[in-house]
Amino acid sequence: MKQRPAGVVITRSREGNRELAAKLRLAGLNPITVETISIAPPSSWTHVDRLLGRLDTFDWVAFTSPTGVKFFVARMKAISLRVPWKGSPRVAAVGEQTARALKDIGVTPDFIPSAYTTEALADELPAEKGTSVLLLRSDIADRGLSERLTDRGFSVQETAIYRTLVGKGPRPEIRDAGLIVFASGSAVRGFCALVPEDELRKLRKLKAVCIGPVTESAARKSGFSNTSKPGSYTIDAVVREVSRLSKENA
Predict the structure, then answer these.
(1) What secondary structure, in 3-state letters, does the chain show?
(2) Number of separate domains in the chain
(3) Tens-place pLDDT, residues 45-97
(4) I want to staple 99 with a disulfide (CB 3.0 to 4.6 A). Which of 74, 93, 165, 229 is the partner?
């Protein structure tokens, strides 16, 4: 009888885990889902609506996740604003998944950085095409993007288009795990909040596949010293990296 592959612990929101689990199963892997974060709308839309109402006064609107795009388009429709639009603002997307989410709503990004990180977005956003930027992100997003843009001379408005609730999922049962996947720093923090410390000590010995350098840094700070990241910072690249490592360990 063919032995079932070791489990791959995945640590996203319920929706994110559903997407990633499907990709892992297609690759012949065995996902173990842990709901480390949940996504919610802002507690009040007042400030967001005010900014969306003057969207055309910005040179750029920047998105750093498909989730931000999802909440943006839903709110634009809710307050009867047009998507897509003509003219300002130009649109920046942190990477190909965010760009794909934008294209799905009819918006073609004007700028994607060379590396799919907020650091690259901050360093490469072309100032010659305008310096006023609206950032639509999570309420717990790192302030580094806004600060780096400001240092470059941009005028930045940042608002939470959604909230990330960390460590709110059910307590997980993890058995026969061989790898763990982190797709964000908040997923790392949520995982550590959900898993009892005695079990966490064992799981920290696993290879942790991280979607990019910021997530890898968060994992290492939380005690996951055996980390890996793919060559490009996308979920599909994570799946390929997990497949490679699983074959090595088979």
Answers:
(1) CCCCCCEEEECCCHHHHHHHHHHHHHCCCEEEECCCEEEECCCCCHHHHHHHHCHHHCCEEEECCHHHHHHHHHHHHHCCCCCCCCCCCEEEECCHHHHHHHHHCCCCCCECCCCCCHHHHHHHCCHHHCCEEEEEEECCCCCHHHHHHHHCCCEEEEEEEEEEEECCCCCCCCCCEEEEEECCHHHHHHHHHHCCHHHHHHHCCCEEEECCHHHHHHHHHCCCCCEECCCCCCHHHHHHHHHHHHHHHC
(2) 2
(3) 999 999 999 999 999 999 999 999 999 999 999 999 999 999 999 999 999 99
(4) 93
